[in-house]
Structure formats: C-alpha cells, structure tokens
Specification:
Blueprint: H1 2-15, H2 37-46, E1 53-65, E2 68-79, E3 83-89, E4 95-102, E5 106-110, E6 115-119, H3 121-128, H4 134-141, E7 162-166, E8 169-173, H5 177-184, E9 192-198, E10 205-212, E11 217-229, E12 232-244, E13 247-254, E14 257-260, E15 275-278
Parallel strand pairs: 6-15
Antiparallel strand pairs: 1-2, 1-13, 1-14, 2-3, 3-4, 4-5, 5-6, 7-8, 8-9, 9-10, 10-11, 11-12, 12-13
C-alpha cells in the first residue's frame, strides 16, 4: 500500500503544482497570424519563467484515484536544476509526507508509519509508463517546455514539431492533428503523440497532451488563470488527468502563495528510527 499509493500520490503532486492580475487571451482565431517555429521558439524563450528558487506555500489539492478521494495541502521548494523538496499536510495541518528529488534519486518519507522509500526515476517511469527525470518534473511544475518521450527540456525540440492555430492558441505537435486523429483510431498504432498549446497573449503553456499508443497511457495537463507574482506570470490553477495501473487519476491544484528566490526550507533529514525501503 505504501509503495503504490504514496508513490503515485507524490508523483501526481509533483507534476501539478499564484494571486494578482489575471491574464486572459483576447485574440480570436481569425486574427492569429501564422508564425514560424523559429519565431515561436524566440517568443517562448523571451517569456520563459526565470527563477533560481520557487517556494509554493500550502496549495489546496483535490485528488481522485479510482474510488479514493482526498483533499489536502502541499508545499514545494524548488532550487533550479538542483533539488525539489515537498511536503503533504493532513487536514489538521500535520505533515504526513516529505519528499526530496534530486538529479538521480527520489526519497519519500512516510511520517505516519515512519518509513523511508529510496528509489530513482526509472522506477517511477516504469510505474507510470512515462519516462520522467528531474528536469521534466521541474518543467511541468514551473509551466515550462518539455518534449516527450525525448526528454528534451529546451527550445531545440520546437524545430522537430509542427505548429498550427487551434482554439485561440498556437499549438506545437509531434504529428499533424489530422494524422493523429486517423492513426489513433487504429488498434495497431505504435506511436507517441504530444501537443503543446501556447497562449498568444503571454506565450505561456496552457495545455500539454500526451497519448502514448505504445504503452496505452495518456496524460492531459491544463494550466489556467495566469497571475503575476513578483512581476512573473504563473498559473494559479492546474489540472491533471492520467491513467495509472488501470485507475484514472484526476488532480486539481489551486495555489495562492508563490515566492521567488525567498522563503521555504530545503531541510531534509531521515530519522534513524525510520524503516528504510530500497526499490
């Protein structure tokens, strides 16, 4: 139970992770001009979230996995390209889980049962059927660009994708929309499809959709209500839908407090009394 529920819960928390001026798109589809991949890449670079450290404090989470429904609070601290520390709080405010992600390792502390789980990203990837690493998780949480399944987290991946206009957004996709719709209807399809929707008013990502027809896995990540924090836009609402171990997982998160380059503790210590489990 510990291995399955908490690993899925923590990963879901990690990939969904905030109150000021709201930004909404006013452009319509007819007025959106075509732009090249090179122009799109430049716009994304200019508007990427720039940070050294992010602290997300006591976000509200609704989590549904099969018949299991939970509400709780979470806090995250991310030191860019280095370490990710997070906590899960019970309704009474007690910290029940604390986890640490670094470049090559994952450690989860179950404070209720005094257990420490040690694993790596290959275990998480196999469990979810989605290859992930520290940089991909960081990109998802910070609303930055990543490409699946290559794992590329920079703008070079833009040039391998097609782009078009759809639903008031620019869209980058690994296949044309028509070809994907045709191929996805076939029972023998062995492709991986990814689309990334980009808001033209602020050049931030509004949606990432992945359909891995090889492993029969889908994930849909929605970002909405972009607000300004320390003059940096960040989505205040996240929603993730995915399928893991034959269960549909849906998680929504609402964040009210985001701090850049200040606040949040990176302290992480494993008590000697904890039972250690290595996977």
């Amino acid at each position: 139970m510990f291995r399955n529920f908490y690993l899925i819960l923590v990963f879901s928390l990690i990939i969904v992770s905030c109150k000021s001026v709201s930004v909404l798109s006013k452009k319509n589809k007819e007025n959106l001009p075509y732009i090249s991949n090179n122009e799109l890449s430049d716009k994304l670079k200019e508007n990427t979230l720039d940070f050294n450290k992010i602290y997300i404090k006591k976000a509200s989470v609704d989590f549904v996995s099969g018949k299991d429904k939970r509400k709780f609070k979470v806090s995250f601290v991310i030191l860019k390209d280095s370490v990710f520390i997070g906590s899960v709080f019970a309704p009474m405010g007690v910290e029940v889980i604390r986890f640490k992600l670094s470049e090559n390792s994952v450690v989860i502390l179950d404070k209720m049962h005094k257990k420490a789980l040690f694993t790596d990203y290959s275990y998480i990837s196999n469990k979810l059927g989605l290859p992930v690493n520290f940089l991909i998780i960081q990109a998802i949480v910070t609303n930055n660009l990543f490409f699946y399944p290559s794992g590329i987290c920079d703008y070079s991946g833009v040039f391998d994708y097609k782009n078009y206009v759809d639903n008031l957004n620019y869209v980058l996709s690994s296949l044309s929309k028509r070809r994907y719709e045709r191929i996805s209807k076939s029972n023998n399809s062995k492709i991986v499809y990814q689309s990334i929707s980009i808001i033209p008013d602020n050049w931030r990502i509004s949606n990432v959709f992945i359909d891995d027809l090889i492993s029969s896995r889908k994930i849909n990540i929605n970002y909405s209500v972009f607000n300004s924090f320390s003059e940096r836009l960040f989505p205040t609402k996240f929603k993730i839908k995915s399928k893991v171990e034959s269960k549909d997982i849906v998680m929504g998160m609402k964040v009210n407090n985001v701090y850049f380059d200040k606040g949040g503790s990176l302290f992480f210590k494993i008590p000697k009394s904890y039972k250690r489990i290595v996977l």
